[in-house]
């Protein structure tokens, strides 16, 4: 089984959860992680180079995928999906959903996602537009940036991830320090950011996703 991994701060809780999950040792050895940005994992899953991943929500709408009610969601603000104002229009090659969201919201400028976006926004948010904030302002809904999708073994993944959204994940300080040093974001800001992100897709999130896909 090959599970794609996005190495962004917003999925730190999931990676820690999976690392601690009591899988048989043999199965843990079989289960392989492939790292990549969202756009790469979209392609890897499409061509079945991996079996499952949290991929761009716009990509997850393909009929070929089996989806869980689990993803990367935010309500009112997200901090890590932004458009830089007063810049030439530019897509972020790492994303699919965020570029489409900027287009739906008619925002001109440079789209930036992930930890880079979070660092820049925290340094000076006056230069940027938070796309989740603008989406909520226009629709009153949260936004689903990514969704867990697989091409096989849906029951297996559902069983493993069943408790994830109900579990309080404590991130060890040495991991916070590691991400702080590599991403140039303070541990305090990382913890605050993770309070903005949530993972359970329920009625409002499905409604938001449907509205977004319709506009796309």
Describe this structure in words.
The protein is of the alpha+beta class. It is 45% helix and 21% strand. The protein has helices spanning 12-20, 25-30, 38-46, 57-60, 97-104, 114-123, 131-139, 154-161, 173-183, 187-196, 203-215; strands at residues 2-5, 32-35, 52-56, 66-74, 81-84, 110-113, 128-130, 143-150, 197-200.
Descriptive labels:
single chain, about 220 residues, alpha+beta, four-stranded antiparallel sheet, three-stranded antiparallel sheet, 11 helices, about 20% strand
Judging from the principal axes of the Cα atoms, what is the shape?
Answer: globular
Number of helices: 11
Distance between the termini: 32 Å
Q: Which secondary-structure class do the elements indicate?
A: alpha+beta
Written as H for each helix and E for each strand, in order along the chain, the element string is EHHEHEHEEHEHEHEHHHEH
What profile does the largest beta sheet have?
A: 4 strands, antiparallel
Unreliable segments of 5+ consecutive residues: none
What is the percentage of strand-forming residues?
A: 15-25%
What spatial order of strands do you see in the largest sheet?
Answer: 3-8-4-9
Radius of gyration: 17 Å
Helix content: 40-55%
Find the count of extended strands (DSSP E, 2+ residues): 9
Q: Averaging pLDDT over every residue, what do you get?
A: 94
């Amino acid at each position: 089984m090959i599970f794609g991994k996005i190495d962004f701060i917003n999925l730190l809780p999931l990676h820690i959860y999976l690392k601690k999950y009591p899988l048989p040792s043999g199965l843990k050895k079989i289960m392989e992680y492939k790292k990549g940005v969202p756009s790469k994992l979209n392609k890897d899953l499409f061509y079945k180079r991996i079996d499952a991943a949290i991929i761009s929500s716009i990509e997850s709408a393909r009929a070929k995928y089996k989806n869980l009610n689990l993803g990367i969601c935010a309500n009112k603000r997200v901090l890590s999906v932004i458009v830089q104002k007063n810049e030439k229009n530019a897509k972020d090659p790492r994303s699919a959903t965020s570029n489409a969201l900027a287009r739906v919201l008619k925002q001109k400028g440079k789209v930036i996602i992930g930890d880079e976006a979070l660092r820049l926004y925290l340094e000076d948010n006056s230069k940027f537009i938070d796309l989740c904030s603008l989406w909520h302002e226009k629709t009153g809904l949260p936004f689903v940036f990514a969704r867990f999708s697989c091409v096989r073994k849906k029951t297996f993944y559902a069983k493993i991830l069943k408790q994830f959204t109900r579990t309080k994940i404590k991130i060890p300080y040495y991991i916070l320090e590691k991400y702080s040093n590599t991403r140039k974001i303070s541990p305090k800001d990382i913890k605050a950011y993770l309070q903005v992100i949530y993972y359970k897709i329920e009625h409002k999130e499905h409604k938001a996703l449907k509205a977004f896909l319709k506009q796309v």
